[in-house]
Amino acid sequence: MPLYDARAVSVPFSIAIEKNGEIVPRSQHADTRLASGDRLEIVVAVGGG
User: Fold this and answer.
1) Cβ atoms within 10 A of the Cβ of 9, count?
2) By residue range, what is the domain housing residue 24?
3) Is 39 helix (H, G, I), strand (E, B) or coil?
4) Residue 29: which of 10, 45, 46 has the closest Cα?
5) Which helix (H) or strand (E) holds 15?
6) In this structure, is residue 10 part of a structural domain?
7) Tens-digit pLDDT string for the chain (49 aa)
8) 35 belongs to a structural domain
9) What pLDDT score was predicted for residue 37?
10) Cα-flanking dihedrals φ and ψ of residue 11, to 5°?
11) For 12-41, b where at least 16 C-beta lie within 10 A, e where not — what string?
12) pTM, rounded to two decimals
């Protein structure tokens, strides 16, 4: 399954995605596939004080 189809969400510019312990470069987001057992960590920068 393509990375973005996993949750069918709009991906903000200020996001970092890690797959199985490795950062997925933004240029590879559209081509990155997920398989059963893959582990994702998604971090979104939030402004505030």
Assistant:
1) 10
2) 3-44
3) coil
4) 10
5) strand 15-19
6) yes
7) 566 665 555 555 678 999 999 999 988 988 899 999 999 998 888 878 6
8) yes
9) 97
10) -100, 115
11) eeeeebebeeeebeeeeeeeeebeeeeeee
12) 0.66
Residue 22 maps to a domain = yes
d(CA 47, CA 45): 7
Residue 49 inside a domain? The answer is no
Place of tokens 């991906």: 11
The separation between the first and the last C-alpha atoms of the chain, rounded to the nearest angstrom, is: 37
Contacts of 33 (CB under 8 A, 6+ apart): 1, 2, 3
Question: Which residue matches tokens 């990375």?
Answer: 3
Cβ pair 26, 3 in contact under 8 A? no
Domain count, the chain: 1
